[in-house]
Amino acid sequence: MIKILDRYIGVEFLKHLFFITFVFMIFFVIAHFFDHADTFVKHHASVLLVLTYYALSLPGYFYQTSLFAILFATLITYTIFSKNQEIMAMRVHGISLWATVRPVLLLSVILSVFIFIDGEFITPITQKKTFYIYNTKVKKEKKSEIFFGAKKWLRWNDKIYNFRRIDQSGKKIEGITIFIMSKKFHVAQRIDALTAEQKSADKWLLTNVIWRTFEKGKPIVTFKYPKRVFQFPRLSKVSKEAERQTKQMSFTQLNEFIEKNKSAINQKVLNRYYVDLHTKAAYPLGGIIMVLVAIPFALKMGRQGGISVGLGFSIGLGIIYIILSSLFNSLGYAGLLNSLLAAWAVNIIFFLGGCLAYLSLPQ
Predict the structure, then answer these.
(1) 229 and 277 in one domain?
(2) Is 296 inside a domain boundary?
(3) pLDDT confidence tier of residue 91, bands split at 50, 70 and 90
(4) Of the candidates 234, 255, 280, which is a domain's last residue?
(5) Quick one: 212 and 317 in the same domain?
(6) Does 272 lie in the same domain as 130?
(7) Of 156 and 194, the one with more pLDDT
(8) Does 285 map to a domain?
(9) Which residues are CB-neighbours of 58 under 8 A, at least 6 positions away?
(10) Does residue 240 carry a pLDDT above 90?
C-alpha cells in the first residue's frame, strides 16, 4: 500500500512539475524572442538558426526557473490533496505525515542533483554556444576572443590587447600592452602604457607610452610618449564580458579560476567571485528547501483557498526568496558579509521556516 501511495504522490507531483516547467520555458522563450525579434529580422537570421539558438537556451532557462517550478508544483500538488480530503483519508488509515511527504522530498533530492549537473556541465557549454550564435552568426559581429587569467586578454582583428586591471565601468585601465600583428601573425608593433582612460566613444588617452616596431632584418625602433591618443574597440564591453564569463563558469571552473588568479584580483572583485562560487553550490539544494517550505503551508491552506491561493502563495514565496537572495549576495559582494554565509543565508532561513511550519502540523 505504501509503495502504491508513494507512486501516486510522486506521479501527481511530477505531472504538475513538468507542466509548470513547460510553461516557464515557453514564457522565457516568448519573452526573449519578442525582445530580440527586431535583431533576428534585421540580420535576416534563418528559422533554423533561431530554433537552434532557443533549443540551446533551454538548459539555462531550466536552471534559472527550476527552484520556482518545484515550489509551484509542490504547493499545487499538496493543496489539491488537502482540498480533496486525500491527506485526511491517508491519515485516517494510519499513514503518517512523513509517509505523505517522503515521495516528493526524495524526488526533490534527485532534482537537486540534476540541477547541479545542469549548472555544472550542460548550461556552461550551451550558454557559450548561444552567445556565439547570437553575436557571430546572427549579428555577424567580427569575431573577438577574450581570455581571463592573471591578466585580461582581448583579441580583436589584427590586434591582441593585454590588460592588468580594468575598472568596473570599463573606462579606465591600469597596465596595458597592445600587440599589432602582421598578416603572417607575427608581432609587427608593440605598445606599452601605464594607464589608459576613455575620452570618447572609441578614443583613449594613454600615459607613459613605449611604442616599438619590429621589421625583419631591421633594428627595433622605439618611441616614447608621455601621452598618446589611441583608438580601441569598445572596451566598455570588456568588464561586462569578464562578469559574463565568470557567471557562465561551472563550480569547478570558477573555483580553479579563483585559486589560480586570486593574487592578481582586487578584493572587491574577489568577494564577488567567492559569493558566485558558493551560490553555485547552494542554489541546487534550494529545490529540497522549497519542498520543505511548501508542503506545510499547502496542507494548512488547502482546505481554505484551493489552487488560486496556492499559486498566490507560491508567487509570494518566490519573490521573497529572490529579494533575500539578492540582498545577501549584495552584502557579500560589498564585503559586509562572509561570502559563504551570503550564498547560503536564504536557504538557511527558508529551511528553518519550513521546519518550524512542519513541526506545527498535527503529527
Answers:
(1) no
(2) yes
(3) confident
(4) 234
(5) no
(6) yes
(7) 194
(8) yes
(9) 25, 126
(10) no
Helix (H) or strand (E) run with residue 175 in it: strand 172-181
Whether the CB-CB separation of 321 and 67 falls below 8 Å is answered with yes
Give the 3-state secondary structure of residue 31.
helix
Could you give the CA distance from residue 147 to residue 125 in angstroms, rounded to a whole number? 16
**Is 149 found in the same domain as 108?**
no
Boundary (domain end) residue, out of 213, 234, 255:
234
Q: What are the pLDDT digits (tens) for 143-166?
A: 555 555 545 777 777 788 888 877
For residue 33, the SS3 value is: helix
Q: Which domain holds residue 163?
A: 144-234
What would the mean pLDDT of 80-95 be, rounded to a whole number?
85
Would residue 321 count as lying in a domain? yes
Q: Both 43 and 180 in a single domain? A: no
In the numeric block, which cell numbers belong to residue 194?
A: 601605464
Q: What is the DSSP letter of 59?
A: H
The average confidence (pLDDT) of the chain is 86
Looking at beta carbons, which pairs linking 161-164 to residues 24 or more positions away fall under 8 Å? 161/232, 161/235, 163/238, 164/264
The three cell numbers of residue 225 are 610618449
Query: Within this chain, do residues 272 and 329 fall inside the same structural domain, yes or no?
Result: yes
How does pLDDT run across 286-324, given as a tens digit for each residue? 999 999 999 888 887 756 666 777 778 888 888 999 999
Residue 256 in domain: no
Number of domains composing the chain: 2
pLDDT at 170 exceeding the cut of 80:
no
Torsion of CA 84, 90, 96, 102, to 10 degrees: -60
DSSP string, 185-220: S-EEEEEEEEEEEE-SSSEEEEEEEEEEE--TTSPP
Portion of the chain with pLDDT greater than 90, in percent = 50
